[in-house]
Amino acid sequence: MISLVTGGCGFIGSHIVDRLLEEGHVVRVIDNFSTGRLANLEHQKENRNLKIYQMDIRNKEEIEEVFEGVDYIFHMAALADIVPSMQKPWEYYSSNVLGTYNVVECARNVGIKKLIYAASSSCYGIPEHYPTNEQAEIQPQYPYALTKRLGEETVLHWGQVYNLPVVTLRLFNVYGTRSRTSGTYGAVFGVFLAQKLAKKPFTVVGTGEQTRDFTYVTDVAEAFYMTAVSGIVNETFNVGSGGTYSVNRLCELLGGEIIHIPKRPGEPDCTFADTAKINQMLGWKAKVSLEEGVQKILENIEYWKEAPVWTPDSIEEATKDWFKYLGK
User: Fold this and answer.
1) Could you confirm whether 144 is annotated as catalytic?
2) Residue pLDDT tens, the chain, 328 long
3) Is the whole-model pTM more than 0.85?
4) Among residues 144, 225, 245, 303, which one is catalytic?
5) How far apart are the first and last CA of the chain?
6) Residue 236: which of 77, 138, 117 has the closest Cα?
């Protein structure tokens, strides 16, 4: 089997690459290294079944050749984070929407077995019901969420109109080794781990009682693999841990002092995936508990030594546009 992973040098993508290589797949990776890192696949550099192409999915003519002969496509490449999506909406739209258009068009032209798209649970916005199932109202709160949703709609529409075999997976709060360490203020784990290494307090938003469906990255990679080799097409699944955990509980597991910063508009008090559909149709269920996942991260904490160390003041400055645009 030949598999293509867009964004394969990124956080989740690199774990999917590992899973595919473990199964004997020949793997091609497209990554422009805007957030992905070659270091994430350094341990696979001698593997002859892996080929990495430094390309941008926004350039259809450039990437087309990499799709030749491909069986499975795992479309992970995207820009993430909330604040930059408000500051640079075109960057997000061109990457997450038009880039996805290029990927599905290239896929349509080569007769693939399956394309699996990394959708985002942020499409649900602030849900009315928990756990949240796939029929919940779609109400994105910021451009990142919107562009990921438009990418998902594109993938599903190509499945409907052109008979492209596709599945979209809506991911909930993925964490684990190799998570991003960019200079952008974003996901809680990257912020907390850099603070822990620097012996600084964890900057907890609001009371810390808000909960998140923290899902370990190898469980997510397994969901992508199982989806690919299944006979299921033209479906959408939530991918979550089966639980929801407070930020305060996360701080307990990481171990360290806490300092509180203001609650932010447009953020749900809870994320919690209803995973009944993927459990029943695919037989997938998360295996790694939050306690086990945090332990795995702490064993590899040096990975975050170059990540920025955020303080209340620098967070306030970095999130000004968040409050400006969403705090209405």
Assistant:
1) yes
2) 999 999 999 999 999 999 999 999 999 999 999 999 999 999 999 999 999 999 999 999 999 999 999 999 999 999 999 999 999 999 999 999 999 999 999 999 999 999 999 999 999 999 999 999 999 999 999 999 999 999 999 999 999 999 999 999 999 999 999 998 877 787 899 999 999 999 999 999 999 999 999 999 999 999 999 999 999 999 999 999 999 999 999 999 999 999 999 999 999 999 999 999 999 999 999 999 999 999 999 999 999 998 999 999 999 999 999 999 998 6
3) yes
4) 144
5) 50
6) 117
